[in-house]
Amino acid sequence: MMMNYIKELNAFRDRLLMNELTAGAIVLWYTLMSMNNAAGWKKQFNAPNAVVGQLSGLSKQGILDARKILMEEGLITCENGKRGKAPIYELISLLPNADRVLDRSTDHSLDQLSDQSAGQFTDQLLDQLQDQSVDQSPGESLTIPKQKEKQERREEETREDNLVSIYEKNIGKLNPLTKTDLLQWCRRLGEDVVLEGIKLMVKHDGRTFRYLEKILQEWAGANVKSLDDVWKYEQQKMMRDNTIPFRKQPAAGKRSVFDELRAEAGL
């Protein structure tokens, strides 16, 4: 006796159009379907939390929350495994009785092809769900990886590593604490602004991180947020420094008695 994999997937998809489920519950259902398919379609099957978490991207609490929802919706049953044993799941068919079981007297090659196609479909769907950005309500313990965020983090780490390398090649080796401070400035002002600070530091023959930090503190105090802001600020600063104010004429001092005598004598 085997579940009709393709029809079950289609029935679940149709159900989602009429009944909302959390992303965690959807991912868990597809994960359990995939695992049961791999197990040869048993009525009940073991699914260790570690394996479910690896395949679904859900945390342990996320699995528990999603499992509770699926059970309440009548989509699965689950018996908690005894100590050292995995939970036992049963998937509840969404099909009418007549459509629930594959007719094994039909062409076996067609069944095999259907199972393979369905498996590929499920894997693709799991990947899409894992990559989607999920709006989580308070209390949801959903940890679905987001490919875009991962890529952005990798790019940010690469930029930070490059900045550290530039500093150490031009200034000197950073100790762990100073490196942390440098990266904090990167996150506060941006890598481009910090890099511009390093260039200015090298131009003025600065040799300590404290020198760079003074530059960055000055820019932060001036609300500098981009390279354009840096250039405008430094240009205005240069104009101020090069401006010579009108000199006040010294006040005329009182003449001494000798000066007055010379003046009277025409000297």
From TrEMBL:
InterPro entries per record: DnaB/C_C, DnaD, DnaD-like_sf
Ranges for domain DnaB/C C-terminal: 165-234
Signal peptide (UniProt feature, chain positions): none
Renumbered residue ranges of the record's region Disordered: 134-161
UniProt feature, compositional bias: Basic and acidic residues: 146-161
Protein origin, superkingdom: Bacteria
Pfam families hit by this protein: DnaB_2
PANTHER family to which the protein is assigned, alphabetical: DNA REPLICATION PROTEIN, PHAGE REPLICATION PROTEIN-RELATED
Family as reported in the entry's similarity comment: Belongs to the DnaB/DnaD family.
Protein's UniProt name: DnaB/C C-terminal domain-containing protein
